[in-house]
Every structure is written in C-alpha cells, then in structure tokens.
Amino acid sequence: MANIRTRTERNHYFKFNNTKKRYNTYGRQIDVKGLFIFLYMFCYVLVEEILFSVGLDYGFNIYKLLFALAAGALLYFAGVAPKNHKIGWGIQVAGIIAVGTVYISQFVYVGIFATPYMVASLSGTGAAMEFFGVAVNMFFKKWYISAFYVLQIVIFFTIYRKAHKTWEKPKEIFKYSLLLFVIITVASIVCPIAFARNLNGAGYYILYEHIPVSSAKQVGMLPSMLLDVKFNVFGISEEYDSENAGIDHITLEHGDENTQTETQEESPQEDTQREYQQNVLPIEFNMNEENETLLDMNEYFSSREPTMENEYTGMFAGKNLILITAEGWSGFVIDEERTPTLYKMKTQGFDFENFYTPIWNVSTSDGEYVATTGLIPESGVWSYTEIADNSMPMAFGNQF
User: Fold this and answer.
1) How many whole angstroms separate alpha carbon 325 and alpha carbon 82?
2) Is residue 198 a contact partner of residue 247, using CB atoms and an 8 Å limit?
3) Cα–Cα distances in Å, from 349 out to 12, 307, 342?
4) How far apart (Å, rounded) are the C-alpha atoms in residues 164 and 168?
5) What is the phi/psi pair of residue 30, to 5°?
6) Given this model, what pLDDT does residue 252 score?
7) Of 165, 259, 320, 356, whose CA is between 20 and 30 Å from 243?
C-alpha cells in the first residue's frame, strides 16, 4: 500500500472481496454486512414511527427522533450482545414482531377510533373485534403506509436474516453498541425534560400526565405506551407546578357575535312571588367514620356552601329524558326541513356553544360514562366496569 501513489492506482486499489464480503480501501475494511445490520436495526423503530406519524398526521419532532433511535439502538444491542448467534437472532425476532405489531395495530385502531388504545384497555379487545371489517378497510385504505410496514418485516426475515447468520461480529461491537444505546437513551429522556417541560410539551407527558393522543404526538407511539404503563399500571407521576414550569397564563375567548345561535333562548320570567330555597340533599355526614378517605370526603362536602335555587329549578319536573350520545357529531346535520326536531331543539331550546369534548381514553364508553354519571373517567381503565358495584344515587338511571 505504501507504493500506491497516483490517483489512478488508488482508484484501482479500491476492490470488493467476494469471499469475505468486505470492502477494502487504503487498508481499512468496511464491513458491508455489519453496516447493513446496524442501519436496518438502528433505524427500524424510526421508520415505524415516521410511517405512523405521517399516516395519521401526528407530526414529527426531535423528541420522537431520539426515542425511536434509542429503541432501535436497544434492538441492535440485544441482537449483537449474545455470543450465540441464535440467541441474538431470537431476541431480535421477538423485538421486531412486538414493535411491528404495536405500530400496525395502533395505526389501524387510531384510524377507527381517533385515539390510541391503552395497555389497561387490552382486556376489551373482544369488543373491539366487532370492528374487524372496519379495521381491514382501514388497513387497505392507507395501503401505501401498510405496504411499508409489511415490507420492513419481509426484509427482516429475508435479507437481514441471511446477513445476520453469516456475519462475523467484531470483538469491540458489544461495548460500542452498549455505549451508543446509553448515550441516545439518556439524551432522549433528558432533552425533553430539560427543554420541553411546558404544558403540552414532551417533558410534561413524561413526568406529569398521560393523555394518549397528545402523548403520542409529542414523544411517539411506543414511548407513549410505556408512559401508559408508568402512569396507569404503576401509578408513578409527579405533581405539576405551573408557576415553576414557565407557563404563561392563557386567556380563552369564547367566540363572538357570529358564533351565536340563530334565535337566542330567553330566560324564563323570574317569579317574584317564589321563595327560593337552598339546594341541600338530606344527607347525614358521619364524622366518626373510621375510613380516612371517607372521613375527608365527609368533612369536605359537609363544609361546602350550598347553591340556591333559581328560575330554572324544577322546570322539567315530571318530564321524560331522551339522552343522545352523538359520537362524531356535526352541526351540518341540523336543517330546518330535513331534521326539524333537531333544528327546533337548537333554535328554541338550550344551546351550549362554549364547551369542548375531550377524546376520552376508552372513546364512546367513557363519553357515555361522563354523560350518565357526571364523573370524569379514570385513565387506563373501563370506568363502567369499575363502578358496577358502587352506589350511584346521582346517576341518571337512579335519578329517574
């Protein structure tokens, strides 16, 4: 090599050894198989996350990039760490299948229900199977995304498998791959906590609260599911301090004159002869309660100042109630000729405009739970199942 001096000679020296499958240039060897194995496994989760985010318009940011690369580095390290080739291959097979299954299933699920499924709600997959036909349609509707998911798996079990089986691992690969995994993992956790702890930032969803859609948009689908386990399975969270988190106070403006209803509802004429009473239920609070939680509740509720009756109190006494849970509701269905009853309800009844509807974690069921009980559902569980044996005197069913 020392005798190679001209550019032509150097170009001719660059050669490919077919037996060892290595490039040799200026005395340095580039392990083609090793490079392919590294790039494929290192970027596998990243490609999955990009497909998921692009296919569902979830956006992409630096924190998703870091978390995806950290997961890919873990898969790579798990495959090259064991001395036995078959063990390393088996670990990577399990990892690839698990990650691919999560992303494909979440991709289809979000496409149907507009929210990711949670780990705790996996017990209800039997009910979700009623939408199997819809899931298949969703999978083929975005065939170009689905095809890339399938292509990655095909490449893994064909080209990657052949390369991994005959690859001669360098001795230093263990420590280098471990070091890479540690560096990227630390960066993926430290960066969002240090630079994005504000409300709705990636750090906020790592430390304080798990909101499936927002969390998946900020940190990625796979980290969001791990955070689901952290918050809802192990109950690990911190109390959010908005004053120390640099949060600006936000003033919400509730529309303008153009957003008002066609016919404003007039308040009923106040009966000046009527004597309004306090809204007090005949409840005796036990101050000798031994259960500390119940005692705290008794002390709190018994000390609350009751509200007063007003001109609306008792307006619907003796009337029936029809409750409609309209998932995916749109005001376009209200038409004076085509839907006269809905039109009358909107223009002559109570029309509440300054409100928002959250995307509940268990979708339709949680929405109905809120409407019928007046309670906020607990994240990560099937709330109706959890209260099945509870006394619910204030729920609609018991009120009527």
Assistant:
1) 55
2) yes
3) 86, 24, 10
4) 9
5) -105, 115
6) 38
7) 356
